[in-house]
Design brief:
Layout lengths: L3 E5 L4 H12 L3 E6 L2 H15 L7 E4 L5 H15 L4 E4 L14 H29 L2 E6 L12 H21 L4 E6 L8 H5 L10 H16 L4 H13 L6 E2 L3 H12 L2 H11 L4
Parallel strand pairs: 1-2, 1-4, 2-3, 4-5, 5-6, 6-7
Helix pairs in contact: 1-2, 1-8, 3-4, 4-5
């Protein structure tokens, strides 16, 4: 019998591909996303994979900031399946811009969705995992959760926060048989970056460097893993009984995290600035 896997933010991109792969592997998927249309089409896809008569998978439109809605979703999932084996916090939004020019209200929204959103879904299902004697809590982080990139100060802050939160959480829940892990991609060939890459206004002292950063990022995205390639690695991690704590899905993140551990800070920074063409 397969796992029951809860996934947030699964209407498109990597989340959608992971859900499809899990269904093909015989797992049961329960999840939500803000996109009602995306949820509807994914539900139909999963039903086709597993058989529509079974209506095996449970997907609903829901905003990660709706705390009461998350609790209702949890109760419905546990009533329907009796257990949950793995929770993947995948929901998140990007944020780009020079720190000096950041709209702090927009920054607060990013932190609310990326950090507290992960906390909310983990906290909701933790009691059930603890009582059943085990399970997995897995959070989508990022390379920038350990190596901050320029013009991504707020996004980096959210991912640093996720890494710290999950590292602390691990000590608390492992005695109950609950495994905790992070997935830390650098780039995946999706529209995620394009949605947030907006140049500073004319006259900004950061305009030229930001322009070069975006141009370089667009080049790198073309050779980045596709959502399917990334999802294949994520699905393998979800299927492991004892996944590693740190997990990468692409060569760039593996390389940069290795260099981050062994190089002096000045050398590492020089490589990063040169790599993103913003010396």
């Amino acid at each position: 019998m397969g796992q029951v896997v809860v996934i947030t933010g699964l209407a498109d991109g990597m989340g959608r591909e992971v859900a499809r792969m899990l269904a093909k592997a015989g797992d049961t998927v329960a999840g939500f996303d803000m996109s009602a249309e995306g949820i509807d089409t994914l539900q139909k896809e999963l039903d086709e994979i597993s058989g529509p008569a079974a209506r095996r998978h449970y997907l609903i439109p829901l905003n990660i900031t709706d705390r009461q809605g998350i609790h209702r979703f949890r109760d419905e999932v546990l009533a329907k399946y009796g257990r949950v084996d793995t929770v993947l916090s995948n929901v998140g939004i990007g944020f780009f811009g020079p720190f000096e020019e950041v709209d702090l209200e927009a920054a607060l929204k990013c932190l609310e969705i990326n950090v507290i959103g992960a906390a909310a879904i983990f906290q909701a299902f933790l009691p059930a995992l603890r009582k059943q004697g085990g399970g997995k809590l897995i959070a989508m982080s990022s390379l920038v959760g350990q190596i901050p990139f320029p013009f991504e100060s707020i996004y980096s802050a959210s991912k640093f926060a996720i890494e710290g939160m999950v590292m602390s959480l691990r000590y608390e829940v492992e005695p109950f048989g609950i495994r905790v892990a992070l997935i830390e991609p650098a780039q995946v060939s999706t529209t995620f970056a394009a949605k947030i890459h907006k140049l500073p206004p004319e006259g900004s002292p950061y305009l030229e460097r930001a322009r070069r950063f975006i141009s370089r990022d667009n080049v790198l995205i073309k050779t980045a893993p596709t959502p399917i390639q990334a999802a294949e690695k994520i699905a393998r991690i979800l299927h492991e009984d004892r996944p590693a704590f740190h997990n990468q899905v692409d060569f760039m993140s593996t390389l940069f995290l290795f260099l981050n551990r062994i190089l002096p800070v000045g050398v590492r920074d020089a490589i990063l600035l040169n790599h993103m063409d913003i010396k």
